[in-house]
């Protein structure tokens, strides 16, 4: 049971629906093998397009062509987390879900406040009795950023992020994760989206007993369509695309410019010091260009609230060159032997080319169903591939998102992974 002593620690935490949450910065000391790539980090928006052209060239594996060797990247980094628990629970053995977001998002993907939290995955999971841990992946959101261009290529890669995920998981297991009052979780499941699913896949391959069950959303192992995502993003340097968020612009600088052009009368009384300074991200942090790109990447027309696209654009997160080069580093065969659910939108672009049912093989129900072949230690009764109808890649942003959430909770409960 989660100790009642947890409640005072959550007194200043956010409260929504029937959940209590605490936001904590967690330092992790990690190490990983990272690739050495013999390319220049893109420094302009045109460089970013050239990088995308190289990545998407048919018949060429640009990652392998650029790879010259390996190094070990080590360090202590801060990971921004949100730990949530049901508002009231009688669980003796609570299960915690570790939620890893994909490219273009941060940890709020799992706990969207839009429309009074009606799109919140965390709300549905905690209502079903689970605890949750969602976090900003390393290098993004409120987690540690990398401050020079070269590190966006050499250090911030998939393998280092998997190491951070492993560290957070072990803290949950041994009761050392800040904000949980020393609770040791004997049942831990991992839920990912897109690149977060790829990291979850890699995690349980490296550490087959670290998770009791995994859910891979927005996912398949068919890499044929990855170029659609890269090209559709129309990548730009994050610091020039949204300079107030990702650049080095402060309120004082804005005020100075307005003074120069004599516009201060229009802003009289405004506190420029209240403007949060930009993140000052270096070149090499890339971001999708605009709302149109985000719709193409994540949303199915007619099946989402147009206003949520605006929110997605205003809150979008970047991706680094190192992450893009290591997107396809998943092992073809996975060592994990526990329950696996793959849940992908019917019209997912990056993993299904826009139609997950167009397999070209009458014996294969869907493109995500082929993932079963990569889990030789998982029996047929422990593997499920579910296609969420009327949904594209950004599952949580569609009108029927909660239907997908219910499928996940039901799957976990059917495998004995619900809180007890």
Q: What's the alpha carbon Rg, rounded to whole Å?
A: 21 Å
Helix and strand sequence = HEEHHEEHHEHHEHEHEHHHEHHEHEHEH
- How many β-strand stretches? 12
Overall SS class: alpha/beta
Please report which band the strand proportion falls in: under 5%, 5-15%, 15-25%, 25-35%, 35-45% or over 45%: 15-25%
Spatial ordering of strands, largest sheet: 1-2-3-5-4-6-7-11-12
Number of helices: 17
Question: Mind explaining what this structure looks like?
Answer:
Strands 1-2-3-5-4-6-7-11-12 form a nine-stranded mixed β-sheet, with helices on both faces. Helix content is 32%, strand content 20%. Helix 7 (158-174) crosses helix 8 (195-206) and helix 9 packs antiparallel against helix 13 (291-298). It has 420 residues and is an alpha/beta fold. It is built from 17 helices and twelve strands.
Observed structural traits:
single chain, 420 residues, alpha/beta, nine-stranded mixed sheet, three-stranded antiparallel sheet, 17 helices, 12 strands, globular, disordered N terminus
């Amino acid at each position: 049971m989660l100790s009642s002593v947890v409640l005072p620690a959550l007194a200043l935490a956010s409260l929504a629906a029937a959940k209590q949450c605490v936001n904590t910065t967690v330092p992790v000391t990690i190490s990983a093998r990272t690739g050495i790539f013999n390319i220049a980090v893109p420094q302009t928006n045109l460089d970013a397009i050239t990088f995308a052209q190289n990545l998407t060239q048919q018949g060429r594996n640009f990652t392998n062509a650029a790879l010259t060797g390996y190094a070990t990247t080590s360090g202590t980094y801060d990971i921004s987390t949100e730990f949530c628990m049901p508002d009231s629970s009688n669980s003796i053995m609570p299960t915690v879900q570790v939620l890893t977001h994909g490219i273009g998002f941060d940890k709020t993907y799992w706990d969207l406040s839009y429309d009074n939290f009606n799109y919140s995955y965390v709300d549905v999971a905690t209502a079903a009795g689970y605890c949750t841990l969602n976090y900003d992946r390393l290098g993004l959101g409120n987690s540690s950023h990398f401050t020079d261009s070269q590190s966006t290529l050499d250090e911030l890669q998939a393998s280092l992020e998997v190491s951070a995920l492993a560290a957070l998981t072990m803290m949950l297991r041994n009761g050392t994760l800040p904000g949980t009052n020393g609770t040791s979780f004997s049942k831990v499941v991992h839920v990912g989206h897109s690149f977060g699913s790829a990291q979850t896949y890699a995690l349980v391959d490296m550490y087959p007993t670290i998770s009791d069950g995994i859910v891979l959303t927005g996912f398949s192992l068919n890499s044929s369509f990855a170029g659609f995502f890269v090209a559709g993003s129309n990548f730009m340097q994050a610091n020039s695309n949204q300079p107030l968020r990702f650049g080095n612009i402060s309120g004082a600088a804005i005020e100075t410019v307005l003074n120069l052009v004599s516009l201060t009368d229009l802003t009289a009384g405004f506190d420029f010091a209240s403007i949060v300074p930009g993140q000052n991200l270096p070149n090499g942090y890339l971001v999708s260009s605009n709302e149109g790109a985000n719709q193409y990447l994540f949303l199915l027309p007619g099946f989402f609230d147009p206003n949520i696209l605006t929110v997605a654009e205003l809150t979008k997160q970047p991706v680094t060159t190192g992450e893009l080069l290591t997107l396809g580093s998943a092992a073809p065969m996975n060592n994990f032997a526990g329950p696996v659910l793959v849940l992908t939108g019917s019209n997912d672009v990056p993993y299904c080319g826009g139609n997950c049912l167009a397999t070209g093989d009458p014996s294969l129900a869907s493109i995500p169903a082929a993932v079963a072949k990569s889990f030789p230690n998982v029996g047929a009764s422990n593997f499920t591939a579910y296609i969420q109808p009327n949904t594209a890649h950004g599952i949580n942003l569609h009108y029927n998102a909660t239907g997908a959430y219910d499928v996940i909770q039901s799957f976990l409960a059917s495998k004995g992974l619900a809180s007890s």
